[in-house]
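Worked example

This section walks through a single chain of length 388. The input is the sequence exactly as stored; nothing has been trimmed or padded.
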Amino acid sequence: MKREEGTIDMNTFFLSPERSDQKTILEENRLVQAEEILIKTLDSLTSMVAIINAERQAVLINKAFLDALGSDSMDTFLGKRPGEMLHCIHAQTMEAGCGTSLHCQYCGAGQSIAECQRCVVAVTKECRITTQVGDAWVNLDLKVTSSPLNIQGEEFTLFVAIDICDEKRRHALERIFFHDVINKAGSLKGFVEMLQDSENDLDVREELKILRAVSSDLLEEILSQRDLARAEKGEITLHPELFDPVKLIEAVAKQIEVHPVNGNRKIVTKVTGHPSPVFTDRVILNRILTNMVKNAVEAITNGSTVTIDLSENDTHLIFKVHNDSVMSDEVKAQVFQRSFSTKGMDRGLGTYSMKLLGEKYLHGQVSFSSDESGGTLFTIAMPKQFNR
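Given that input, the structure is written out below as tokens.
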């Protein structure tokens, strides 16, 4: 089998970078197309199906897959790998394409194909892919199955992808909602019982203060989940207003200081210069920053510090949330993907919602960095003037 060589960078962090040349791809396509019953069967399925060769390149794509790609012809997709067909944002990171970048190590599709080809057994994995279509980022949740397929003595892989976005979204929202609301309702119940048993007026006042904070946070949690569900459906209504960003970060710091998640971590605000007022949706920006600070607090030990930093340039206000923890490569590769969480099965959507709300609705830029020298830093750069 011939492979493309020459100018292609053959470096890889995961799967083989080698590719079949176009002549070989067309020969394999003709071989597969001769199996008329197989082709008719695949085209009758509603799942996305591709037959791929040893180099993970498509030699046939079924009708459902082509429909999902917005095409009625497979010609432009022959020879491409799954991530390249789906416009995965990491498919072009390395010159050798899909399956060769650092991020690809954690891709369920790549893992499924690799294990199937290595062990010659069917392998099913869940796969989160962030795709880019035009200027928009779209998150896909897929269940992929790779199965061995022998056609006239040639070995191929049958790659089947089922869209489980709705299932994962509903499952995640339900689990997060019940997890957090039950915890907060439990806290409320505990404080009410303490108030009933207390005979000291000073203790009652302190407990009422905490009770108010917990009940406020419970309401905020319910509203957050409602707004995230609306955001994914494109139903968010924005209410931009002019406000002082310094007061915003001070309010966020105070809110998290009394939050049960905080323990005795220190939250410090740092302001560079005299930042201009910002015109945007204050409630949503507050929600994004609160989420950033909560995540930062949960990632460090008691006694450690989280810093909320505010600065500006000519066009943007820059909000940064920093702690001293360091993410693993696996976590860094999946931070903004829906359904991924560092906190276990009952959590997730936090960093995804930052990206969704901050970029799609507030037109900011949300990013992060995490390394030994600088710790973990989440940033949202907000335009000073909101553009509808």
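What to look for: The domain at 3-163 is CATH 3.30.450.20 (Beta-Lactamase).
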